[in-house]
Amino acid sequence: MLTRIHIRNLIIVSNLELELGAGMSVLSGETGAGKSILIDALGLVLGDRADPEMVRSGCDRAEIIAEFDLSQQPTLRTWLAQQELDSDGECLLRRVVVRKGSSRAFINGSAVPARLLQSLGQQLVDIHGQHAHQSLLRRDHQRQLLDDYAGHRELVSGVAALFHDWQQRRQALEALRRASRERVERLDLLRFQIDELEQLNLQPNELEELASEQLRLSSADQLREGCGQLVEQLYNSDQSLHASTASAASELAHLAKSDPHLRETGKLLEEAAIQLEEAGRSLRDYLSDLESDPQRLAQLDQRLGEIHHLARKYRRRPEQLSPLLEELHEEREQLEHADIHLAALERECATLGHAYLGQATTLDQRRRKAARRLEREVTRQMQQLGMPDGRLEIAITTLDPERASASGINRIEILVAANPGQPLQSLAKSASGGELSRISLAIQVATAQCNGTPTLIFDEVDVGIGGGIAEIVGQLLRRLGANRQVLCVTHLPQVAAQGHHHLCVQKQNRDGQTFTQITPLTHEQRSEEIARMLGGVEITEKTLKHAEEMVQRVGEG
Question: Residue 132: which pLDDT band, with cuts at 50, 70 and 90?
Fold first, then answer.
């Protein structure tokens, strides 16, 4: 249940904090006062797409915080724990929208992607917009509505997963069949390419070793000259480093006879002289083995040229030639055994197709069973909403397997007859605007009773309804509020009178700026607001008395 919402710098709201209780809360106010801002704020904090233009003029960012009580929602607490977002049973959602940059979302203080916030939001709140009847005209929405009512979400997901797997295997099967038809030419090419790469016979690490040896042989003269000079400096000349170091070590050894503290330093010089002697000997050995080998260098150049030539030909880097050879071998293996793979894939496709059709048939049966229940419930609601002869039917057609889809093997369409003597027709053809709005509300009420979402929000779903029908609408919403939290944005006094709580939206102008406030109304204030909704600008004693009677009658009921 939504217990508190805090809004800062959103559209014309500067700073608003609102506490909400159980039951049915009504939100009313003059046209243009900003009744839908609360719905917009809830949509954002529940994961709707953020628009920087929603940030209040003159501000850099907007912030919405919503607090939910999950004490009676073990499933949601488990979900939060699985996402490692639980916080001792609390659920605090926060959304920050910045004018320049990306919006940020938080669950219990942890930053999360908007899609995760949206996933949680769908489980916390169900928003029925004032234009819900428009989406009701779409067949895909009608199908989803029936599936949500039936409560077989896992079966729907399973059918979709099987269909996608089946389609993937069918596509692979078709690709293999095409490859089989073209495989003779492809096999000839593969054999030629494999033969060419195998003749190259590129060994592991060969490329690095060839490059290293080529560099050494091509630099032989430079290496000989440089190493010869170093041997002279280190060892051969009279003033060599070895001779100077050895002389210094001998002198220090003589001085150490007078002061033993110099012995360690003397040892260091002796070791240095030994290291210099070994370095000189190593360089002389290197020089004795260093030879120019133009023939070997030519062989290296030729070998590296062959490798780079094939790399350019196959548009690969030289080090990728060996993996390429493995890929070509695998493709040749598949094509040479295409018949075996083809038969196996055909069996797999048949198995998946059979499994899909089995699950889709089960879904078809459950849809038909749920449709009969929903038809009866919505028809009853329609007749209560001023269409005494109205009736609704959900037409379910079983499609051929060739026309199957991820949603199953059904075409689903809602048909209605709103008036006596009318045949059942599609919603788009048979219902006027007001009738469509009432039918939409009847469906929303019927499906909401089967929805486990703890908070239901109705945003002016009573558009086009008035009189006694409006009172029935209010009664239906109040009945929902007996077991669920209901928030209803309305302009009808008959609906507003049915609420357990009443919130009033007011717009004020101060210092050239516009501000919106939402205030919980006392009993007396509530009667005045309902009187305003009944009588307009001038509230008479008669109008006020009528409003008080409406509120009192609901309380007595």
Answer: low
Q: Give the predicted TM-score (pTM) of the model.
A: 0.60
- Predicted confidence (pLDDT) at residue 459 exceeds the cutoff of 90: no
Calculate ∠ Cα 211-213-219, nearest 5°.
100
Check pLDDT > 70 for residue 434.
Answer: no
CB atoms within 10 A of CB 310: 19
DSSP state letters, 314-377: TTS-GGGHHHHHHHHHHHHHHHHTHHHHHHHHHHHHHHHHHHHHHHHHHHHHHHHHHHHHHHHH
Q: Taking 90 as the threshold, does the pLDDT of residue 97 lie above it?
A: yes
Residue whose entry in the numeric block shows the structure tokens 């704020």: 41
φ/ψ of residue 520, rounded to 5:
-65, 135
Q: CATH 3.40.50.300 occupies which residues in the chain?
A: 1-130+453-520
Q: Are 227 and 283 in contact (CB under 8 A)?
A: yes
Tokens at residue 45, please? 């904090």
Owner of token pair 């096999």: 187
Query: Which pair of tokens denotes residue 454?
Result: 């703890």
Q: pLDDT digit string (tens) for 480-527?
A: 888 889 998 888 899 999 999 999 988 877 776 777 788 899 888 898
Which residue, 386, 396, 390, is CA-closest to 378?
A: 390
For 216-270, the DSSP string reads HHHTHHHHHHHHHHHHIIIIISTT-HHHHHHHHHHHHHHHTTT-GGGHHHHHHHH
Looking at the DSSP bridge assignments, the partners of residue 25 are: 487, 501
The answer for residues whose C-beta is within 8 angstroms of residue 357's C-beta and 6 or more apart is: 401, 404, 409
Between the CA of residue 152 and those of 143, 172, 369, 401, what are the distances in Å?
Answer: 12, 31, 12, 21
Q: What is the model's pLDDT at position 108?
A: 92
CB 391 within 8 A of CB 416: yes
Q: Which of 367, 97, 332, 373 is nearest to 192 (CA)?
A: 332
Cβ 514 vs Cβ 32: under 8 Å:
no
Q: Right CATH number for 1-130+453-520 from 3.90.1150.10, 3.40.50.300, 3.90.1170.30, 3.30.930.10?
A: 3.40.50.300
244-260: burial string, b at 16+ Cβ within 10 Å, e else: ebbebbeebeeebeeee
Distance CA 245, CA 239 (A): 10
The pLDDT-based confidence of 557 (bands split at 50, 70, 90) is low
Which of 465, 205, 173, 182 minimizes the C-alpha distance to 345? 173
Q: Which pair of tokens denotes residue 404?
A: 């199957």
pLDDT beyond 80 at 460: no
Residue 133 pLDDT greater than 80, yes or no: no
CA separation for the pair 438, 521 (Å, rounded): 29
Q: Which of 472, 499, 459 is nearest to 388 (CA)?
A: 472
